[in-house]
Each structure stands twice: as structure tokens, then as C-alpha cells.
């Protein structure tokens, strides 16, 4: 097709007009989502309904294919729009599951994670009080009418904070938001005779919405009495996964501690090598750029927090040592120049991953495309 400069300008003008039409449609969609949020708030419906999302995406993909539009394109656009939608639905608030509840007290509610939960309970209609580090002389009065006390303090201060609590009302639910569970659960069970449940939000305080997030909960006692807390959180949109303290801490050794430690070690290695980060980025494929971003993300946050997570449980150090042994074993194969042994081990690991390998390949493809879209070159 022969396109003259004049024709090109006209085509670009038409693209601009189409983009403006898209903006208007997105604005309309957000307004409709806000109305949906109001309805969900009034009727106690959860923000995120996976079945509805999956069905809607499947239908839009099929419609796109019939129109000659790439199905992946419409799914990408809609997923991004839905992420914004989930965040905007928070503005409507949430139905209060337990309208007869007394105060919700967040110990450490001035911290980042604590403030997030303070906000969510207030959006759900509860009277929320904060017990901060300067308020302990008033602690007894603050918790006097509490139906829920949430401990949201640094890991290394969690147990001593629990032990410092005044006597709570008999039917008050006591919980924590710590990323280790065995020690805090033991402390809560000793400090309070009423209902106890351990919580671990698998996200940081900077999320825009609870939709699609994960919260682990560990039973202490009085499940029927603390059920309202779980039901309330479900309306916020996360997936709740039950575990016991031991399983939780063992799993977190790999999911959190090992991942953070290896990122820390890799970042330290880059520093000691005096690597040129700008040069690394310039030479990066999307996958390495994404990996480097995940490492760099760690160092944009609080070192005290990650030191606490990494050293939170004795099991973590044992896990790191086993990782070092496996790393050394892999390095030995390379030092020996035994390529076939390396390939054999590679295939053994691939077999162990099984179907998850192809699942992760598919999931990472979308991440890599998103990372690639964000790249700009001067």
C-alpha cells in the first residue's frame, strides 16, 4: 500500500480519534463498575468472582476471534481494565458481615500494613481503633469493647506485643498478620482464652485491591466465633487458604525466605562485581530484565523487614544450607565438564516439575510480554 505523508497524517488522526473513543468507553466502563460496586456493597457480594471473570473473558475472546481481532489483545485490555475496576470497587465499601460487633482494634495500626487493614475494616462499617506504640498506658480502655484485636507489628516484636496485651473480652477474636505462624499462634493461645486465628496476608501494603490476593489462615480455637472475620475478608476479594502453623512456616521457608535470600545474595554479588546496571538493562532480554527488576525491587524496600522475614525461623537457615549444597553440586558438574551429567540432572528436574513446567512457561509468557511493553529506548 502506497501511503503518502498526507495520507499518513490522516490515518494517525483517525487513530487518535479511535483512542479518544476508547477513553470514553473506558470511562463508561468504570462508571458501570462503580455501580456494580455499590450493588455488591449493599448485598454482601465479594469483589472478585473468578467464575464470572473466566466466563466473561472466554466470551470476549470468542467474539474477538469472530471479528478478526487477536483474542490475546482483548484479554490483555480487559484484564488491565478489571484490575482498575477491582480497585475502584473499594470506593463503594463493603457490607458489614457482623453488625453487632464491637470495636476492631489494630495494634500497630499506624504502620503500613496495619493502616491497610484499618482502612478495609472502616470501609466495611466497623468502629476501628488503633493501639500504637505510644498508647500502651491506655491499652486496657482501648480493647475494653473489642470484638477483634489484630496484631500488626514487626515480626521480631510480635510475640512480646501479644504477651503485653491486657485481658481481652471473652468473645473477642485475637489474630495477627505475621509471616511466621507457630510462635505467634502459641503466644496468642497463651495470652487469650477466647477465639484465636492466625492470618498471613501474602502481599505488601501497597496493593490497590485485595482481589486475587491470598490470605493464609491458621486455626487456633473458636472457629465458629472467628468465622465472621474470614467471611468479611472474603468480601474484599482475596482467596483464603487454610493451613496449620507448621505447614505454613515450612512452606514460607521456600515461598518467602529462600526467594528473598537468593535475591539478596544475587544483589550483593552484582554490587561486589561492580556491575553496570544501565549496561545490563541495555543488553537484557525481557526475561532477564524482569528477573533483574524482581531483585532490584527487594532493595527498594525496608532492609529491617526482609532481615526479619529471612531470619524469622530456624528452619530458614537450614533451608539456605540445603540450597547451597544443591548449588555446589550443580557447580561441580560444570567444573568437571560433565555436560551429559548436567543434561541428565536437568531432565530429572524437568520431569519432577511435570505439567507445572508448561503451566509456568505459559504464565511467564504474559509477564514477559508485559515487561517488554514497558521498555523504552532513548
From TrEMBL:
Keyword Oxidoreductase found: yes
SUPFAM superfamilies recorded: 6-phosphogluconate dehydrogenase C-terminal domain-like, Chorismate mutase II, NAD(P)-binding Rossmann-fold domains
Key words, A-Z: Amino-acid biosynthesis, Aromatic amino acid biosynthesis, Cytoplasm, Isomerase, NAD, Oxidoreductase, Tyrosine biosynthesis
Subcellular location: Cytoplasm
Domain Prephenate/arogenate dehydrogenase intervals: 102-364
Keyword presence, NAD: yes
GO molecular function terms noted in the UniProt entry: chorismate mutase activity; prephenate dehydrogenase (NAD+) activity
Name assigned to this protein: T-protein
Organism annotation: Neiella holothuriorum
